[in-house]
Amino acid sequence: MSIDKKHLKIGMLVEIRIDKKEDMTSGFIAEFKGGSAQKGVRVQLTNGIFGYVERIIPKHEHELATAKFYIKLVQLDHVYYLSEGKGMWIWNRRAGETTQSTCFLFTSEQSAKEFLGKQKIDKTVRRFKGSKTITSFLKDSYPDVVFIDGNRKIKRRHLEEQEKMYRVKMGL
């Protein structure tokens, strides 16, 4: 079943068939790369992958995936960061008169190394260790924004709210 472009919009979570492969992946639509064709609607996801939309991921599946993602992040289960010396690397980006401090977290060592390669950044990839939570780890560096896998932007405040909800659910 082919999905018509009129049912899609930028930012929507979809599952795509990757160009020239039979592999499937999911992500958020960044832009359309053509209209409806015999193969389907060709899009680029926010992570840069191109493919043809196979299905729109329903809201309940999206919410479940988001919850699992935050739980993994909050527990520091296989979370990696970019290091400069002994501490976390924080990028202070100027936007007009303001400066926004940003840190980068990754859900796999491979995604961190790919990001470094694409951005030509000379930093070390380290894995979180110990029993700290994500927000306690970030407290020392106090970033305004956290980028996950180089493409998912989360305000630190929102991450703290997710951790509180997780702690309540787990009775911690």
Describe the structure.
This protein is of the alpha+beta class. The chain has 4 helices and 11 strands; from the N terminus they run E-E-E-E-H-E-E-E-E-H-E-H-E-E-H. A hairpin with a 2-residue loop joins strand 5 and strand 6. The model has no long low-confidence stretch (mean pLDDT 78).
Any key phrases for this structure?
globular, 4-stranded antiparallel β-barrel, 4 helices, alpha+beta, 11 strands, about 170 residues
Class inferred from helices and paired strands: alpha+beta
The percentage of residues in β strands lies in 35-45%
The SSE string, one letter per element, is: EEEEHEEEEHEHEEH
**How many beta strands in the DSSP annotation?**
11
Mind summarizing the main beta sheet? 7 strands, mixed
Low-pLDDT ranges: none
Radius of gyration computed on alpha carbons: 18 Å
Please report the number of helical segments: 4
Q: What's the average pLDDT?
A: 78
Choose one word for the global shape.
globular
Query: What proportion of the residues is helical, as a percent range?
Result: 25-40%
> Ends: how far apart?
46 Å
